[in-house]
Design a protein that fits this description.
The protein is mainly α. The chain contains ten helices and no strands. α9 runs antiparallel to α10.
Length: 182
């Protein structure tokens, strides 16, 4: 993840606040071992890179960095990291672009997120944590919507998830996602 963090000129990325604070916030999210720490790191990132779902230029770099670290996160940190990626994938770009939030597109953000598509599919199948499962459904859906090569695979995975006993509480969310991918 450090290599990915170093790839970006954080101070030069436009956002709602000082983007130079984002690498330390991402590190805090990755290092979090309890819900309170993970939640605090999540909000440090959210309030800078994508306030109320409005994406900034920094959101793409955040997505790339968080995706890089997914396999080594604690369960509380993973839940908030997936929620963050789902918020980015479901975000919007403020128009007109002269608003000063930098060049950004949902498609670019989802492309970075989609690099972890198999990870989301596996988590959906094996995780017993409701928040993680819900985020995975959202992420699989976003990947299928924006990455044409993943659309059919996303439909297949979500259809299969309908038969998993541990996902019955997410049945409506999965069905809505399948309709969204039709």
């Amino acid at each position: 993840m450090e290599i990915e963090l170093a790839r970006h000129n954080w101070a030069g990325l436009r956002s709602f606040a000082d983007s130079a604070t984002l690498p330390d916030a991402v590190r805090a999210l990755v290092a979090a071992n309890d819900t309170e720490s993970a939640k605090a790191a999540y909000w440090r990132i959210d309030n800078v890179a994508l306030l109320d779902g409005c994406l900034t230029e920094a959101a793409t770099a955040v997505a790339a960095s968080v995706v890089q670290a997914l396999s080594r996160l604690s369960e509380p940190s993973l839940a908030y990291a997936l929620e963050l990626l789902a918020q980015i994938s479901g975000g919007y770009v403020h128009k007109p672009s002269e608003q000063g939030l930098g060049p950004v597109s949902v498609e670019e953000c989802v492309h970075e997120v989609s690099l972890a598509f198999p990870f989301f599919c596996e988590l959906l199948e094996v995780s017993g944590v409701s928040q993680i499962c819900a985020s995975c459904v959202d992420l699989i859906t976003s990947c299928g919507r924006y990455e044409r090569t993943l659309t059919e695979r996303a439909r297949y995975v979500l259809s299969g998830a309908l038969d998993l006993p541990g996902l019955q509480s997410h049945r409506e969310l999965i069905l809505d996602s399948l309709r969204d991918l039709s």
